[in-house]
Design a protein that fits this description.
It is a single chain. By secondary structure, this protein is mostly helical. 72% of the residues lie in helices and 0% in strands. It has a domain of 133 residues: Tetracycline Repressor, domain 2. It contains nine helices and no strands. The longest helix has 28 residues.
Length: 192
Amino acid sequence: MPRVKEFDEDEVLLKAMRLFWEQGYEKTSLNDLVERLGIHRRSLYDTFGNKHQLFLKVIERYDKMLSEHFQAGIAHADNPKQALRFLFDYMIEGYEEKPSGCLFVNMAVELAPWDSEVDFKAGESFDKIEQLLTDLIRRGQENGDFKTIRHPVELAENIHNTMLGLRVLARTSADKEKLHRIADFTMAMLDF
């Protein structure tokens, strides 16, 4: 008879996510994972596979969490301009109990050059964000929120690049006022 799991998989994935986010993939050992997750090494292997397979599952869980946060924030915005402001604020201020920066950005910098699966997942995530930005900009242009006549795809690529930089700076000691000034300047270009 198969053994019943004594832990919640999603809770364990969230703990692993936080650990990888804080320490990075390479610095996180199996011993770190076993200790932080509160499960036995055998349970980790049986449920999630090896460290790399666990990391890929963490990435999927992070992507889901990020999408939920973005969609909820955008749904509460009255217009595309407010939605874009929410995205900037989220990337600068984050939300409760999370490490600074972005797990996708961290993994892209640390692993994408040599790990094709991570590179693919990072690219997928970045493409989704650019599509979200393109849609917001297009709607903002249509309803008059944004005066620019530049192509929404070009604007989305540029804004996403700024957001990537902000997520890197969020991991440093850069003060948040500076990050908000960068976001304000980027949003201002939508009115030219």
